[in-house]
């Protein structure tokens, strides 16, 4: 499974967009975006609509990748992750 940062880099490179242009759209420094792409820093949920627009991806796709990465990076080693996710889905 690719991380969210790897997904972002791949999408950006696929459309030939320089790091600086995406960073400018996010109003962040290129070094911060570079750290996000290298998984040294986390993206925020507020960034998702901007990533969607700039990277020409559907917002649902971007959000799902973000959610999967967030859950897996935090909880993948827990023995009862599936049960916890099932309970979470019931409460939605």
TrEMBL record:
Residues 8-62 form the HTH cro/C1-type domain. GO terms for molecular function: DNA binding. SUPFAM superfamilies: lambda repressor-like DNA-binding domains. This is XRE family transcriptional regulator.
């Amino acid at each position: 499974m690719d991380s969210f940062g790897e997904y972002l880099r791949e999408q950006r490179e696929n459309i030939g967009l320089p790091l600086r242009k995406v960073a400018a759209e996010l109003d962040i420094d290129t070094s911060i975006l570079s750290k996000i792409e290298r998984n040294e820093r986390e993206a925020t949920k507020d960034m998702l609509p901007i990533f969607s627009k700039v990277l020409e991806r559907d917002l649902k796709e971007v959000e799902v990748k973000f959610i999967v990465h967030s859950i897996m990076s935090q909880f993948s080693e827990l023995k009862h992750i599936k049960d916890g996710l099932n309970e979470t889905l019931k409460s939605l």
